[in-house]
Amino acid sequence: FTVSKKDTKPFDGQKPGTSGLRKKVTVFQQPHYLANFVQSTFNALPADRVKGATIVVSGDGRYFSKDAVQIITKMAAANGVRRVWVGQDSLLSTPAVSAIIRERIAADGSKATGAFILTASHNPGGPTEDFGIKYNMENGGPAPESVTDKIFSNTKTITEYLISDDLPDVDISVIGVTTFSGPEGPFDVDVFDSATDYIKLMKTIFDFESIKKLLASPKFSFCFDGLHGVAGAYAKRIFVDELGASESSLLNCLPKEDFGGGHPDPNLTYAKELVDRMGLGKSTSNVEPPEFGAAADGDADRNMVLGKRFFVTPSDSVAIIAANAVQSIPYFASGLKGVARSMPTSAALDVVAKNLNLKFFEVPTGWKFFGNLMDAGMCSVCGEESFGTGSDHIREKDGIWAVLAWLSILAYKNKDNLGGDKLVTVEDIVLQHWGTYGRHYYTRYDYENVDAEAAKELMANLVKMQSSLSDVNKLIKEIQPHVSDVVSADEFEYKDPVDGSVSKHQGIRYLFGDGSRLVFRLSGTGSVGATIRIYIEQYEKDSSKTGRESKDALSPLVDVALKLSKIQEYTGRSAPTVIT
Ligand code: VG1
Ligand code: CO
Predict the structure, then answer these.
(1) Which one, out of 109, 124, 359, 371, has a CA that is 20 to 30 A from the CA of 52?
(2) Ligand 1 midpoint to CA 564 (Å)
(3) Which ranges carry the Alpha-D-phosphohexomutase alpha/beta/alpha domain (predicted)?
(4) Residue 381: pLDDT band by 50, 70, 90 thresholds?
(5) Whether 331 contacts 350, CB under 8 Å
(6) CB-defined site of ligand 1, < 6 Å
(7) Closest Cα to residue 556, out of 482, 471, 445?
(8) Domains 4-194 and 198-437 share a fold
(9) How far apart are CA 375 and CA 141, in angstroms?
């Protein structure tokens, strides 16, 4: 093949958000749009991470992925990359990409130094929906802000990119290596099975035999919803082939380019079929729900865990995994190096860290901040309220890992009881946890696609109000006389303890005397307008009061949040788009 130089002009708005660049497919389909971003990324990397390097290209299989793989492959060849690794049919979950960067070794002994992950995660897919791309680094984690800032600045000045137009398209449905010869030597496209490397890694972390016994118990029942995302490529192989679950326990596990028209976000609103099956939906059936249910998002880095008629909040989930990891999961047998959560995630994990005397970190939203801590050996388990849980086995959150972690905890708690009358259930585990550590009532209100200017003004007003807490407290007393006082308020700022870098404006916080918190943030993953997120949290230590309906317990604080922020006034919305 040969290399050609194409003239191009910058596009506005190619700034990577919380997790890469996400736009409508039609935006990505504009000539040069994807190429500009890819070349800007190559230009932001040190030369040896491009020339002669091995790069992974794959994603959740959403619409436009197959075109994107071909374009990126031709650009990689033209930029002197030595080989490109592609999951069969362009499918690799985000955690699998991270695992492959860290673990997979080419025939000549080389490893990948980075990856283009093609996903817009939990955003819908299809010709009129979202596409996305992000770059992950040599450690398997998302590019840090220093790199994404450089990529963005390159997109603003780009004038040309390199591409090998005459490199033939590679059939990515067929496993195998194709070698081409270019001006600088050979170039390989290696298409491999999407699941093998990832399964191998999972087997080094968990005790598959004990999970298998749990699944085989007649008292236990299991179901998993892939929401037609890439998780399906792993679910059958792991849950059915390896662990012996029945095929009928898998829902929506065929990956589709448009996620079957659904919204591949594992929460109580969008994972409707699973929610119904678990007895938490509106439609009641007389079939007894399974003991355990879970779902993953489009790129399978998020997870939702449910018990029979019982929802586990993601903030509780990470705290419970941390509290039980050492006994239940072989990978952690020698102890946890530390734990971390994102700032808006509830403080359930903080209480566990304190009780177990573990190092603890609070980082801004987005997985990239956990990576530095893990690379420095300071953190083993981490999570976000947004259905993200993971560990230092890779540098991304990991939906299937979280399911296996919960199954491991259930297997451990029931190890002497599998033939008994009644198993320890998901609900039992959570109630027990609240009994020991107290409960953090928690909810998040999302206002999607609101006017961007209005959203900015709302946030600016919340910052302005922070200058007088006495005025704020006067207002709060008028709204809800029994809510405790705000004792401090700020915009969250994070100084990375490893590299000293500082990230500012990471969310507006109001912290109350009784430990309650209100947090306001603008989303960095949407593709149109702005999304306002309000995070509402209240701590209850008294074990006689941890069994309330979350909605009732939080209702005064929710009222304060909505009125304090004047959300209806600013946005015209009388209700949020999604409540989780
Ligand atoms: C959201 C979540 C955040 C998560 C991010 C990426 O970001 O709040 O916790 O890390 O999505 O998740 P934002 O900026 O919209 O609040 V995923 O599954 O898109 O990789
Ligand atoms: Co995701």
Answers:
(1) 371
(2) 25
(3) 14-161, 197-306, 315-415
(4) very high
(5) no
(6) 18-19, 121-122, 297, 301-302, 342, 365-367, 384, 386, 388, 523-525, 533
(7) 482
(8) yes
(9) 10
Residue whose entry in the numeric block shows the structure tokens 């070349």: 39
Q: What is the CATH number of domain 198-437?
A: 3.40.120.10
Reported as a single tens digit per residue, the pLDDT across 327-352 is 999 999 999 999 999 999 999 999 99
What's the 229 CA to ligand 2 centre distance in angstroms? 10
In angstroms, rounded to a whole number, what is the distance separating the alpha carbons of residues 489 and 470? 11
> Alpha carbon of 258 to those of 65, 123, 126, 173, 301: distances in Å?
11, 10, 4, 18, 18
- pLDDT tens-digit map of 268-310: 989 999 999 999 987 666 789 999 999 999 999 999 999 999 9
Burial of residue 549, with CB atoms counted within 10 A of its CB: 0-12 exposed, 13-18 middle, 19 or more buried: exposed
Which residue is listed with tokens 């009125």?
Answer: 563
Q: Where are the domains of the chain?
A: 4-194, 198-437, 439-579
Residue 212 burial (CB < 10 Å; 0-12/13-18/19+)?
middle
- Give the number of the atom of ligand 1 that is nearest the alpha carbon of residue 365: 9
Burial of residue 277 (CB within 10 Å: 0-12, 13-18, 19+) is buried
Residue nearest to atom 20 of ligand 1 (CA): 121
Highest CATH level, class, for 439-579: alpha beta
**Nearest ligand to the CA atom of 578:** 1
Topology (CATH level 3) of domain 4-194: Alpha-D-Glucose-1,6-Bisphosphate; Chain A, domain 3 (3.40.120)
Which tokens go with 484? Answer: 């405790």
